[in-house]
Amino acid sequence: MSDIACAAREEPWYGIDGPYTGTAPCFVPKSEVPAAAILEQNWRTIRDELDAHLRARAQRFRKNFDPYGFDIAGWKTINFMTYLRRYPENQREFPRTVALLEQIPDLTSAFLNLLEPRTRIPPHYGDSNCIWRCHLGLIVPAGAEQCGIEVGEERRGWCEGEVLVFSDAHRHSAWNDSDAPRVILIFDVMKPAYRAEKEKICARVLAAIALLWAEPRWRLISRLPRPALRGLHVVLGAGARLVLALQRGGRAGAIR
Length: 256
What we know:
Structural class: alpha+beta
Strand content: 25-35%
Number of strands: 12
CATH superfamily of the largest domain: B-lactam Antibiotic, Isopenicillin N Synthase, Chain
């Protein structure tokens, strides 16, 4: 087991807690997520299914939802699962991709992500320090300077068929300054130290995302003192956990 995997467990951090100041490394070796090899070995299957979809139904890519209010028309996704919340209709459109994702232990989220030409994602903090975020390159314009990601102060580029692993909690940004689209498969895996609390943590992340979205839109929430906001986060997290439990009980989706 690596030193990274053995590192001391941090307290769970969520987006409403303010800027992340923890010690998680920005990028980690993909060996931290051994199941990533499954997707690398079968990336052509995923790419072929993506290509067929783009030829037939590219409109299923929707503008990326983000709670920070960025208005980025060229940042789009097809969601399969977001912190255990499933999207069965999208899953049915990509049966071979979903079958591969089913083989990844402790998967919490998975979605295809499109960054159109000349599109940039501003710096922002992620959702939680409890997951490793993984990017599998599917369609990548050549050259990290034209198309890449910056986490903390470290820059990397994507490669088709290869997985890049980083801590989503750190401030990060991405860009595609090329004349071609960039498409990756994003998937999140719960870190070993938090696996026993996976459903609780995912519910808290969903609650934090909802609050971040609501704060600038509902004055009452934006005026709450920090302790009250955190109390509301706990309450909403309990509600989200109930929804996840009901979804699990009535299991319509494919990804476990």
